[in-house]
Write the structure tokens for this entry.
Amino acid sequence: MEVCYQLPVLPLDRPVPKHVLSRRGAISFSSSSSLFGAPDPRQLSQRRGAISYDSSDQTALYIRMLARLDYGSTSASSAPERRVHRLLSFQRYLHSSRLLRGVPQQIPLHILDEDYTGQARCMLEKVGNWNFDIFLFDRLTNGNSLITLTFHLLNQYGLVELFQLDMVKLWRFLVMVQEDYHSDNPYHNAIHAADVTQAMYCYMREPTLAKSLTSCDILLGLLAAATHDLDHPGVNQPFLIKTDHYLATLYRNTSVLENHHWKSAVGLLRETGLFSHLPAEDSLNMERELGSLILATDISRQNEYLSRFRRHLDQENLCLSNGSHRHFILQMALKCADICNPCRPWELSKQWSEKVTEEFFQQGDIEKKHKLEVSPLCDRGINTVGNIQIGFMTYVAEPLFAEWARFSDTRLSQTMLGHMGLNKASWGSLQQEQTSVSEEAEPSSAGTDTEEAAATAARRNSNTATAAGGTSSKEIPQGSRES
């Protein structure tokens, strides 16, 4: 199917013609067939959010939607207009690049770097630094940090040439990936995906991994990082389950979000035909391994992966010449990258902490509005950024990064542990200051009791106090029900 991004650039204050909304056709695929075909009308009638599913097929027949519903909108009709607004804005950015203006593919790939100017280009030269400021980079790239960063890394490793990837298909794929992250999510958005991709790159450059990973491992690692939260709806799995969301039904309440991210990524790979030139068996294997990496980010399976990792380290039996062992280490690297925010320098870590907490609180606001039980850590009335972060570091991040440091005892590992210790102390100091101010205003032990209660909640529900959780904006996501 021909995929075209030559959208007309229209004044944003004028009505958008219907044909503009049809930027790409609806495509369906199933695990039982490698052929694309016209969607069944019955499947189209069940389309909700960014995907559809046929209730008779629990393997999920995905159909790409022409315009994804905006979960935070009170008016469904306004969502496509905002989506097109975003596409048109990016279209103007694409017109400024020579990449899609007929550059012959035989031209050396180094020409791509000529599009990165000024500070953005300087930052890319230091993309392996742990203090890389992804927020600044996103501003310098006009909100296109995920596309620019991922394309640069793939090119830097020589993967575009090695795997004979069509540059236009690759660019389209990355554009669509960035598009399918929800920009109105405070945390689970394309900037988070870019940050995880940059962290994954740092881990894959560690000596133990750098000398062992194959080109295929590197390609899968970068693609998994870029797509690991693709089309995140902005609420966590328990929320989807208790509201009978169709995604929870589709995946039988098991790794609901992670399965959705994986299937969404596969949908884009097939829609763009990025791997269509590879043998069918190789392409399917890459899709499966991509899924295995993304599914490992399910925080509810944290103890399972951590116990296995610790066992390998205790027995000293990791052999990175073994493909399955390398894949497992890539899973652990992606898990670390996904929750590495506490290990960043304070200025970056604090921003991420505030963003993820705001998502928790927005979810709590929705649950209160619809008279649902408020999820742990999501009640802004009894929780603070500080106590949530202290609990998360203590019970989730520290155990994981301590084991990673055993596996890769390098300067980077010690830097991450050092930052986490300082950040935890900083949040503790801020908590004490807030408690002191509260006690001066109204002498009581309420502040301390609240903090202890929140810490207990964090320990009991650490699975939700992570980037695997999430929130929405204004309303319950499409496909849910009020209780």
Remarks:
- The first strand starts at residue 28 and ends at 30.
- Confidence is low (pLDDT under 50) at residues 1-114, 444-483.
- The longest helix spans residues 411-441.
- Residues 19 and 183 are 24 Å apart (CA to CA).
